């Protein structure tokens, strides 16, 4: 049995000399030191030995196992060190190389304008209200003094979902919903930003979906002069202290009297140029005193309370503020266009 153990030792050490990688080493470890290996087989036969032989053969077996294990551990350490060195070489980082630039996003110009308008009116004591984009005909038209047979409905060609549900054509329904919720409480000072939808042919100045911001004030003794002063304050903060406004008579079913609001041309300062068609003025928004019928339908007594409302297109404001000549630039997601606003 001693001779058998010595032969196993020589055989194992001989094969270990031929090992070239970790896989071969693991296979030899199983072959010689595993539960079904020849060394284990020899040890199982020790029960047939005499009491005097067992300690001697046991010592020889332990020596053989230790010799084989020692070589295997040495080989394993060698391969592990080689693998670590190879990985370090592959994963070496050259800290002198220039870093990769990261493309940072920026706030969209329309979002910039909305935030700026909100900040201006919040500074004047207004709150921001929102409402659904899919709206009931009642809130979009009827509660704003536009019954189903009213000819002014033709001014807003609409996207209808059903006979009584449509994509809102303006953010005025938010005003109606707010007045209903307040149940006659005053003062009301709100602005309503949001997307609106109309069946327009898209071109340089029109889009079937665009963004509006409307405002509403209701209280006792609210006058047209309050509307003018509010809008003058707004345009001067938005376009500069030198900006002036003028109000031109107009018609909106939900305001009476109604007025279109012009500002001095932001390009020529009012002296006249191609953009303002030599007039020195640019149209910017619509406004007026809230129609008594609208107040009454929303639960306010028009004999006690009065109010004014105004509405502006965010794209129109942005085009004037940034000198953009085509509304479609805001929606085509052209990074060459959008990057211009990253530092603004």
From TrEMBL:
Q: Which domain of life is it from?
A: Bacteria
Q: Where in the cell is it found?
A: Cytoplasm
What does the record give under GO molecular function? Answer: ATP binding; catalytic activity, acting on a protein; magnesium ion binding; phenylalanine-tRNA ligase activity; transferase activity; tRNA binding
- CC cofactor note: Binds 2 magnesium ions per tetramer.
The catalysed reaction is: tRNA(Phe) + L-phenylalanine + ATP = L-phenylalanyl-tRNA(Phe) + AMP + diphosphate + H(+)
The alphabetical list of record keywords is: Aminoacyl-tRNA synthetase, ATP-binding, Cytoplasm, Ligase, Magnesium, Metal-binding, Nucleotide-binding, Protein biosynthesis
What does the record give as cofactor? Mg(2+)
Please provide the Gene Ontology terms (biological process) for this protein: phenylalanyl-tRNA aminoacylation
Q: Which residues form the Aminoacyl-transfer RNA synthetases class-II family profile domain?
A: 111-320
Which EC class heads this enzyme's classification? ligase
Transmembrane residue ranges: none
In this chain, Mg(2+) is annotated as bound at 256
* This enzyme's EC code(s): 6.1.1.20
Annotated Gene Ontology cellular components are: cytoplasm
- Give the quaternary structure: Tetramer of two alpha and two beta subunits.
Q: Which family does it belong to?
A: Belongs to the class-II aminoacyl-tRNA synthetase family. Phe-tRNA synthetase alpha subunit type 1 subfamily.
Q: What is this protein called?
A: Phenylalanine--tRNA ligase alpha subunit
Its source organism is Paenibacillus psychroresistens
